[in-house]
Amino acid sequence: xxxxxxxxxxxxxxxxxxxxxxxxxxxxxxxxxxxxxxxxxxxxxxxxxxxxxxxxxxxxxxxxxxxxxxxxxxxxxxxxxxxxxxxxxxxxxxxxxxxxxxxxxxxxxxxxxxxxxxxxxxxxxxxxxxxxxxxxxxxxxxxxxxxxxxxxxxxxxxxxxxxxxxxxxxxxxxxxxxxxxxxxxxxxxxxxxxxxxxxxxxxxxxxxxxxxxxxxxxxxxxxxxxxxxxxxxxxxxxxxxxxxxxxxxxxxxxxxxxxxxxxxxxxxxxxxxxxxxxxxxxxxxxxxxxxxxxxxxxxxxxxxxxxxxxxxxxxxxxxxxxxxxxxxxxxxxxxxxxxxxxxxxxxxxxxxxxxxxxxxxxxxxxxxxxxxxxxxxxxxxxxxxxxxxxxxxxxxxxxxxxxxxxxxxxxxxxxxxxxxxxxxxxxxxxxxxxxxxxxxxxxxxxxxxxxxxxxxxxxxxxxxxxxxxxxxxxxxxxxxxxxxxxxxxxxxxxxxxxxxxxxxxxxxxxxxxxxxxxxxxxxxxxxxxxxxxxxxxxxxxxxxxxx
Amino acid sequence: xxxxxxxxxxxxxxxxxxxxxxxxxxxxxxxxxxxxxxxxxxxxxxxxxxxxxxxxxxxxxxxxxxxxxxxxxxxxxxxxxxxxxxxxxxxxxxxxxxxxxxxxxxxxxxxxxxxxxxxxxxxxxxxxxxxxxxxxxxxxxxxxxxxxxxxxxxxxxxxxxxxxxxxxxxxxxxxxxxxxxxxxxxxxxxxxxxxxxxxxxxxxxxxxxxxxxxxxxxxxxxxxxxxxxxxxxxxxxxxxxxxxxxxxxxxxxxxxxxxxxxxxxxxxxxxxxxxxxxxxxxxxxxxxxxxxxxxxxxxxxxxxxxxxxxxxxxxxx
Lengths: 547, 317
What we know:
Chain A is an alpha/beta fold. Chain A contains 21 helices and 20 strands.
């Protein structure tokens, strides 16, 4: 057999909780040859992870392989018994999970988990396995390779965990590595280091890989060939170069189009500029934990942050996890009262705590949270969720309220009939639209959007951004748009504030992105966003990753 | 052991102590409200108004409740449980004997129940949805739904009356050999196991199933681990917190909740002593028994909490 992996007409069926059977993989075939990295790309629900897991002879609970063959190095995984498959896992084929933070057992030391494969399969004595692990830690550029294994998972950072997960997969010297969105949960600057480490060890070992991702730009850096999936079917297969530069299938083109940076047409400067900006944040200090003697909280999340939002404009706040961007939204909304500084609306200072603000203050500023799943009451139908702010802020009831609910649904481009559904019955994009409609129900002037597109697929997220722009035109809204993703911020904002470690790094007009950055950190951040170009990672200036 | 663990453990002990104080207050208040007058019962036929008044003042029963509570709690803190109203014996002595009987019953029961519950709980979680799981789960639910006096009475009917294998009453002090021990303990232990294992099995099963859904267990599977290894090395250590708590809760029942079992089998334990004390309005004895139950309960629960704190790797440095 010429290829290491040959998948032929694979079919997987899932059984939902209600007992319905759905075909989630509908006859997929592709090959991976020795030393080749093949990427499976698609949105959530496209079946990419399910296919990757069948390469380990595993299906998640509720799923079964109903047809086809999965050949790995001359063995059909579909036909093997469970104990034969156990024998292959970790030695012939190894897995690097999406969230290493969840994939490490919290109660065991890292080294014990990394060398576990060699113990399960009795590959080598413990001491040898430890030595091999330290060698891998070094190859993966982990700090303190000798001792890092003695720590527990919660004691190392996300990027380090992801590399430790790669070490855990490499210890059995597999012929095939499966990467399941291994960098999706990481910050862009960390992602670069991890990708670089993966690439170098893969190249050294001459291993074959299957790389699952939704991010074309990341995939372009590591894969030789790309398989584009949608709804459990292959749309297009080709070399990375062909897929990116000469896509054939309309769906691939759509994916690539979603990647093109969309610049936001700046709002025309208002003719008669109002005296005050609609929202102004002045020298806000906020944090978590008790205040120390100087009146500052123990964990400082915002240190002397100021920004302004002009009426009808949008302010982007960008930064990595821990930069304080979400805390800023919470401080502005009064959910986390600042210990110092002022928040002004139309030039008038708002009380710091949300419970001291008037109903009118609350109405004028609404917040939309990242996860619509947790922000919407799962036991209330959509109509009730939208109706509550209508009654609370505007005293609407009965027919009047029903009519307004329908209007709101129309505004966010959802069918009216949806008002009788529960949030669980909606898709991720629909839920986020309801979440947005709830904020609009108050007739606000300012909406704080906290990572509202981060949990959505690219195409769905792009549609939400379009909706935001349209609503802005109709309702004269101003957004504070918080995100870790440069391209989304660029697509909707007039001004962008870069945050790091609770402080403002700099504020730029969106039109100056990404080249106009004057500070080192913003330059690093902007340069770390993967580009749709196969040579981007290799050509990257190494100086950037030192920070 | 670092300072963070130490503060948490000390905090937990402090909470336990405060709880104990509150309980003592409630126990004292509750016994105060019991109907009937100890003096009238003690004097019986000789209860003339003068005699009643004299005895009352001699027993300090005329003092305000708070003063008597203070006296009682101070005595408790010094280890003085007081003397019984009914027969003038030191309460510590009366309880001592009975407590060791109850503890012995509890020890034998836990030695049987805990391993049984763990094995059944873990295996049903491992083979979730199988015939075996369904049989055990159904059995457990039926055992939970049957009250213990029913189980006890049935056990007497079957083993003592029909089969004539075991004595209907358990006189623990007569047991001298292993065989005798077995005959004495068999029925109370069976009955108690019925009550406490059911809860432990269900909690263990639920806790293990919860952790089996964790990504790190799937990761272990993808490393080639056997089912046994996935459960024992990856799922169980992370499910220990809730399991230990369920065990502690169930075992605490063996101290305070055995009233029915001890009464039915006439087992000379502390619960039986308390029932008798209520019959004779022996207030100090009732209070002391209640405090013993409470201390036992709190000890177990606090122990479980401390175990959970110490077992948490996030607090280990």
